[in-house]
Each structure stands twice: as structure tokens, then as C-alpha cells.
Amino acid sequence: MGRRSIALALTLTGLCGSLGALAAQEQQQPTFRSGTNVVTVDVSVRKNNFPVTGLAATDFALTDNGVPQAVTSVTIERLPVDVSLLLDTSGSVAGIIDSLKSQIRAAAALLTSSDRLRLLVFAGDASQVFPMQPPGAELPLDEVKANGLGTSLYDSLAAALIRQRAPDR
Question: Is residue 143 within 8 Å of residue 121, measured between CB atoms?
Fold first, then answer.
């Protein structure tokens, strides 16, 4: 073989080796495919700010880019809520503290038995009057007095928001 033949044979051999490596690399990369048959769509239907009850799947129309989709089921689900109330007990509310306590009792009456309620008060500092408890439990509000100095609203907001939450709430 002449010089040209050897160079051409080496070039072709190198090219074939590179193509083989590329083909092997493509075969090694897995292909990921995904699909779905069911999609959950969260909606809230209200009339005069009250939930509408008794709805069925046929009461809803759902489209995806203008294409009608089948609505196969409608479920009504309510998760329990945890409510933290903050009450200012500084001297500035001394004249209305009994009214504020009454409003706390009224708020507790709006909750269901699976909900929970706690009360934090703030004046010069923030403290918890009672921890999370069912709304029907006795609310120890008699000991809450409005005679504190200053107003530590930011401290009490932090105390209300920074707490570990249960995963089911």
C-alpha cells in the first residue's frame, strides 16, 4: 500500500471507531417518558361568600386549550385549621378588653370540632395564654387583663407564626 492508502485507511478506522463510541453512548442514555390519566383541579364554589353544596361532576365544564375534558368525580374535602389569635393587652385597650374577650369566644364558636385555637397576648412582651386546643374547650380568658406597657406587636406576630406544624393541618 502507498502512503495515501495507509492514511486513508487510518482515517476511516478512526472515523468508524468514533461512530461506534457515539452509538454506544446513545444506547446507554435512558429515555424518560411520562404521562397522566388523572389531574386534580382544586376549585371553590361560593354564593354570597358561602360554599355551594350538592354539586356533581356534571355541574362542571373543564377545557384544556379549548378541548373539553371529562370531569369524573367531585369530592368535598375540608382540612382542619389551626387558628392563632393575638390580643393586645396594653393599657390602650383597657376600656374594651371585655368586648375583645367576647369576640374571642365568638371566633371560637365559628370553628368546628376538628379545628384548634390558641391565644397569645402582647403588651411589653408576648406570651401564650393557652396552647392549641379544640374550640369547645374552656377558654381561660378571665386572667387576661389589659394593663401592660408598650406594644410588642412584632414579637407576638413572630411567636404566632414560628411554630412547628403537624403535617395533617
Answer: no
Domain range for residue 90?
A: 82-161
For residue range 51-100, what is the model confidence (pLDDT) as tens digits? 888 888 888 898 989 999 888 888 777 778 899 998 988 888 889 999 99
| Number of domains comprising the chain | 1
In a domain, 76, yes or no: no
CATH code (residue 117): 3.40.50.410
Q: 100, 160, 103, 92: which is closest to 126 by C-alpha?
A: 160
Q: Examine residue 121 and state whether it is found in any structural domain, yes or no.
A: yes
* HEC-encoded secondary structure of 56-124: CHHHCCEEECCEEECCCCCCCCCCCCEEEEEEECEHHHHHHHHHHHHHHHHHHHCCCCCCEEEEEEECC
pLDDT digits (tens, 9 = 90+) for 5-50: 444 444 444 444 555 555 555 667 778 788 777 888 888 888 898 8
- H-run or E-run covering 133: strand 126-133
> Is 19 contained in some domain?
no
Report yes or no on 139 lying in a domain. Answer: yes
Tell whether pTM > 0.70: no
Chain position carrying cell 350538592: 54
